[in-house]
Design a protein that fits this description.
Elements lengths: L11 H10 L3 E6 L5 E4 L1 H5 L5 H4 L10 H13 L6 E3 L4 E2 L7 E9 L6 E8 L1 H9 L4 H10 L3 E6 L5 E5 L3 H5 L3 H4 L4 H6 L2 H11 L7 E7 L5 E11 L2 E8 L1 H15 L9 H18 L2 E9 L2 H8 L1 H18 L5 E6 L2 E8 L7 H8 L3 E2 L5 E2 L3 E7 L13 H15 L4
Antiparallel strand pairs: 1-2, 1-6, 3-5, 4-5, 5-6, 7-8, 7-11, 9-10, 10-11, 12-14, 12-17, 13-14, 15-16
Helix pairs in contact: 5-6, 13-14, 14-15
Organism: Actinotalea soli
Protein name: Diguanylate cyclase
InterPro entries: Biofilm_reg_signaling, GGDEF_dom, Nucleotide_cyclase, PAS-like_dom_sf, PAS_4, Rev_trsase/Diguanyl_cyclase
Length: 416
């Protein structure tokens, strides 16, 4: 897999094997030139090729004119302000007659320009089921019984009851249709809190999303995530549910990797910028202030040179843990790179500063596995939007606040 697909240190080979086992079609391409930088085996198979045959080629060479039109439509809607788009309309599968695919795209900003992660799932069974829901009841049940997705129907008169549940529910949830029974007690019992709330609103006739995720507890106490599509009938509700557990986990992992420092788990620069922009907007309305504390570990290079990078990484992880533990949970703690960190504190009082707590947290020695203790002090610099030194106001942008804290840190370094 190309280096651009998975951030450094994220286990590229293991993730490649996992993605190649999925039936979902997964591809990643650059926005600037539409060059494919990654695809899994399922995406390549629809083009009668292997990933090695396709990576590096432009999508114009691989997609039909209709598919390219759809791609450009999605790109026109995707961006930093709309990073995830779901296309609810099943599309014909490329080069595979009578198969239908549903696509979701995620915008992934990166240092070399934005990329798009596209995930497609074969929804042929569900598409055919949806086309036939208006046909006779006998035909509906025959088709639903054969669907890999869960087809369900709830009647609301004279009282709410589960009037139909396809046999595939056992494969997806571990519970049989008989376990669920006619009433809704079992369904409510195995749903999570959000699911129970949604079910209650649906039964009360309140508006709920036509498509939503429902988490159900399996008999082995693991959880399955079902994406439920619902249609209201004159006398009840009817819909289809599909298993999206792996996809939701993958989406969560990819989002985490894109916004978190892989070594410490702290916010990276990209996430820091997003959080800072939101915090600046809040304090402009609330009249509060932001205090940014820039932290630089002293003598960290000597630790790396003397003990090796493995020990250096352990020191960084422990420093990140100490910083996070020293401030309220609402504060932002980010790793800027190397041995530099930033802590952002939101306060209604400009004098409420966390710098003393941070220095105290970083002062104790670091204990190595062999019992050796080493010291790695810190220099900090503080900047605030409230302004200091007679200024009426401090920095008003995320870049300005970070730069001001950085300058204050360098001014505070010993010997300056």
């Amino acid at each position: 897999m190309p280096d651009a697909v998975v951030p450094e240190g994220a286990g590229s080979e293991d993730l490649t094997e996992i993605l190649d086992l999925l039936s979902e079609r997964i591809a990643r391409y650059r926005v600037s030139d539409l060059v494919l930088v990654y695809c899994n085996a399922a995406w390549a198979a629809q083009h009668a090729a292997t990933p090695d045959d396709l990576v590096g080629r432009r999508l114009e060479e691989l997609l039909s004119p209709a598919e390219l039109d759809g791609l450009h439509t999605q790109l026109g809607r995707l961006g930093p302000d709309a990073p995830f788009l779901y296309d609810p309309v099943p599309r014909p599968a490329p080069h595979i007659p009578d198969r239908w695919v549903e696509w979701a795209d995620r915008w992934l900003p990166g240092p070399d320009g934005p990329q798009v992660l596209a995930v497609g799932r074969d929804v042929t069974d569900r598409h055919r089921a949806e086309e036939q829901l208006a046909v006779s009841e006998a035909h509906f049940r025959d088709l639903a019984d054969r669907s890999a997705d869960v087809v369900w129907r709830v009647s609301t008169t004279p009282g709410p009851c589960l009037s139909y549940l396809s046999p595939s529910v056992h494969t997806l949830t571990g519970w049989t249709a008989e376990d669920f029974g006619a009433d809704l007690e079992h369904l409510v019992a195995v749903a999570d809190e959000d699911g129970r709330e949604l079910l209650g609103e649906a039964m009360a006739g309140l508006p709920i999303p036509e498509r939503y995720d429902l988490r159900l507890r399996r008999p082995d106490d693991t959880w399955v995530v079902l994406e439920v599509q619902m249609t209201r009938l004159r006398d009840g509700l009817q819909g289809i549910a599909r298993d999206v557990t792996e996809i939701r986990s993958l989406q969560s992992d990819l989002a985490h990797l894109a916004l978190r420092d892989p070594l410490t788990g702290l916010a990276n620069r990209r996430l820091l910028d997003l959080l800072l922009r939101a915090a600046l907007a809040r304090v402009r309305h609330s009249g509060g202030s932001l205090i940014a504390t820039y932290v630089d570990l002293e003598d960290f290079k000597l630790v790396n040179d003397r003990y090796g990078h493995q020990v250096g990484d352990a020191v960084l992880v422990e420093a990140a843990r100490r910083l996070s533990a020293a401030v309220p949970e609402a504060d932002v703690v980010a790793r800027l790179g190397g041995d530099e960190f930033l802590v952002v504190h939101e306060s209604g009082e400009p004098t409420d500063r966390p710098d003393d707590r941070l220095l105290a947290a970083l002062t104790p020695p670091y204990l190595l596995p062999d019992g050796t203790s080493i010291r790695c002090g810190a220099t900090i610099g503080v900047a605030t939007t409230a302004g200091t030194g007679g200024q009426d106001a401090g920095p008003t942008t995320s870049e300005g606040l970070i730069a001001a804290a950085d300058a204050a840190m360098y001014a505070a370094k010993p010997g300056r």
